[in-house]
Amino acid sequence: MDLELLNKIKEAEKELEPVFEELDRICEENSQKVLEAFQECDLQESHLISSTGYGIDEPGRNKIEEIYSKIFKAEDALVRTQLISGTHALSVTLFGLLRPNDTMISITGAPYDTLQTVIGIGEEVSESSLKSFGVHYEQIELINNDFDIQTIQKRLAKKDVKLVEIQKSRGYSTRESLTIEKIERVVKAIREVNQEVIIMVDNCYGEFVEDREPIEVGADIAVGSLMKNLGAGIATSGAYIVGKKHWIKLCAERLTSPGIGKEIGPSLNQNPLLLKGLFFAPSVVRSSVKTAVFASYMLEKLGYDVEPKYHAKRGDIVQTLSLGSEENLVKFCQGIQKGSPVDSNVLPYPGDMGGYEDKVIMAAGTFTQGSTIELSCDGPIRPPYIAYMQGGLTYEYGKLGILKAIEYMQK
Fold first, then answer.
1. Using 50, 70 and 90 to split pLDDT, how confident is the model at 277?
2. What percentage of the chain's residues is helix, strand, coil (to nearest 5)?
3. Helices (H), 55-171
4. How far is C-alpha 63 from the geometric centre of its chain's CA atoms?
5. What confidence score (pLDDT) does residue 301 get?
6. What is the DSSP string of 38-83?
7. Where on the phi/psi map is residue 319: left (φ > 0), alpha (ψ -120 to 50), or beta?
């Protein structure tokens, strides 16, 4: 690393000190929350033992779900390796809670690409989508990166909507991620006109970025993936659903079968990984956000449009970098791959992927396939050619990966 670059890095980190200090504060609060949950739920060595077969009423799995309930301030939780992704967990939740002729509304505009396929939005509607089962879908757009409270209240006052969906993260869009304060305001506004509607938050990429979670501000149910924040790069699979006990029961019966629900589900030697991942998650999320802040600072100094800005308040770990051309997008992602610990010699190229309309390039030299809490970068091949970067198990490794990506893009 040459002297000029070292000086630029020192200059950047000096300016970023106040931002990093706030991230340290959030990490400490969330670490205390996790440690107290482990202690108050009386986690024992015996709970690390996993089951096989049916996994009937397994103590370790039940203890993990008790701990998740405590951390999220929820009545109940479903935390399973059988939930293989965030999209899968969201699909299980929606199919568990919605029935034919029910209506769901997204109040954050169009949801993430793969969830659109689950709902049945678009020209080609899957025979397995919610739409094919007679579930109706509406959406209300954000205004200036915030909820359209007036329109939301007017629509929900009719009391014919079963479920409201809120996506905390930006997905493949240019809007900002939503802070917990904004979610709290809209939940209060909804409850002023409708006490019955289910409020569901897609919490993917958002856990532990702030010091409160959606259930704490009135959401009924929240969903996320252990391949992201809460797995900390240690959990090798899984997802979670937390919320009110009755809704968790219905989700569990959708995952397994009616009448069985949460009683079965072998953990298959995953309990130590799920618990270690959760234990490390506050620190790893901090590293991921610090990596994003550093990338934001460096790319903005190079003249690129970035969101969020390095000093902005964040609601998730995602950093968007508008790179202006397909070539820049591809090269930046290839540079991230070159800066990875695994498959660093591989060059990713855009390709077709299930659930996405555009070709997508994905870079992730990760220890767990598809883990986006590890440094990774992806983006659809469409103007304005935005790279969606997230992850970084440690800030030091994340910083090195960003520098490699910048170097490769600028060649």
1. very high
2. 45, 15, 40
3. 59-72, 86-97, 113-119, 149-156
4. 23
5. 93
6. HHHTT--GGGG----TT-TT-HHHHHHHHHHHHHHT-SEEEEETTS
7. beta
Does residue 266 come out as left (phi exceeding 0), alpha (psi in the -120 to 50 range) or beta? beta
Half-sphere exposure of 237 (CA within 13 A, CB side): 10
DSSP 351: B
Element spanning 319, H or E: strand 319-322
Looking at residue 150, its amino acid is Q
C-alpha to C-alpha distances, 397 to 7, 51, 183, 341, nearest whole angstrom: 18, 35, 32, 9
Q: What is the DSSP letter of 179?
A: P
List own/partner pairs for 48-56 with CB under 8 A and 24 or more apart: 48/271, 48/272, 48/275, 49/271, 50/266, 50/267, 50/268, 50/269, 50/270, 50/271, 51/266, 51/267, 51/268, 52/266, 52/268, 53/266, 54/264, 54/266, 55/264, 55/265, 55/266, 55/267, 56/263, 56/264
- Compute the half-sphere exposure of residue 239: CA atoms within 13 Å on the CB side of its CA: 25
The stretch 65-90 carries a mean pLDDT of 97
The model carries a pTM of 0.95
Give the C-alpha separation, 330 to 308, whole Å.
21
206's tokens? 């958002």
CA–CA separation, 397 and 375 (whole Å): 8
Q: Are 322 and 331 in contact (CB under 8 A)?
A: no
**What is the rounded distance in angstroms from the CA atom of residue 262 to the CA atom of residue 84?**
16
What percentage of residues in the chain have a pLDDT greater than 70?
99
List b or e across 243-277, with b for residues whose CB sees 16 or more CB atoms inside 10 angstroms: beeebbebbbbbbbeeeebbebbbbeebbbbbbeb
The predicted-structure confidence for 349-385, as pLDDT tens digits, reads as follows 999 987 677 899 999 999 999 899 999 999 999 999 9
Residue 173 confidence (pLDDT): 82
Both structure tokens of 130: 């919610």
Higher pLDDT, 249 or 1: 249
For residue 238, is pLDDT > 90?
yes
Provide the residue type at 180 as one letter: I
The two most distant CA atoms of the chain are separated, in Å, by 66
With 0-12 / 13-18 / 19 or more C-beta atoms within 10 angstroms meaning exposed / middle / buried, residue 126 is middle
